[in-house]
Design brief:
Layout: E1 10-14, H1 16-25, E2 37-43, E3 47-50, E4 53-56, E5 71-73, E6 76-80, E7 83-90, E8 100-110, E9 115-127, E10 132-139, H2 143-147
Antiparallel strand pairs: 1-9, 2-5, 2-8, 3-4, 6-7, 7-10, 8-9
Length: about 150
């Protein structure tokens, strides 16, 4: 049995598709030079139990879908100090009386509808009189890309 110190409260990950689309958008000769984030899907996915408590699972970088999607919305995107900051909300009143959804995951899509990033947090219930607001911070540098900047002399 794992200790409670192994419980992960949140994760976010840029997916392989993000890096592929960014690379393709930088090439001439007929490739589209325009790549943007689009809408987000709200769902319930990537949660496991550790010692009876929820924990966020690692996000596979080749993930193409999320489970339990119950809503799609717009988001606001900014870039600050090497981080993509995503803010989104499901305000109270988004769902009709009696509707309830368990939330743990957002899938961030590009303008073509493909997932380019995913964020996971501790589960929470949303319903007609209770909403939720998110701020997701995605670091854009991968640790393996930093290794290429080391110069040996």
């Amino acid at each position: 049995m794992q200790s409670q110190s192994n419980i992960v409260l949140e994760r976010s990950e840029l997916l392989d598709k993000y890096y592929d689309e960014r690379a393709l958008s930088s090439l001439p000769n007929g490739y589209s030079a325009f790549f943007q984030f689009g809408q987000i899907d709200w769902g319930y996915d990537l949660i496991e139990e550790i010692g009876g408590k929820p924990s966020c699972q690692p996000i596979p970088t080749d993930k193409q879908s999320i489970q339990g999607i119950f809503h799609t919305s717009d988001a606001n995107y900014t870039y600050v100090n090497g981080n993509i900051v995503v803010t989104a909300s499901l305000p109270a009143g988004t769902f009709p009386d009696g509707a309830q959804h368990q939330f743990s995951c957002v899938g961030i899509k590009d303008q073509k509808g493909n997932y380019v990033a995913i964020a996971v947090t501790q589960p929470v219930w949303v319903y007609s009189h209770r909403g939720v607001s998110l701020e997701i911070i995605i670091k854009t540098a991968r640790s393996d890309s930093l290794q290429s900047a080391i110069v040996e002399g």
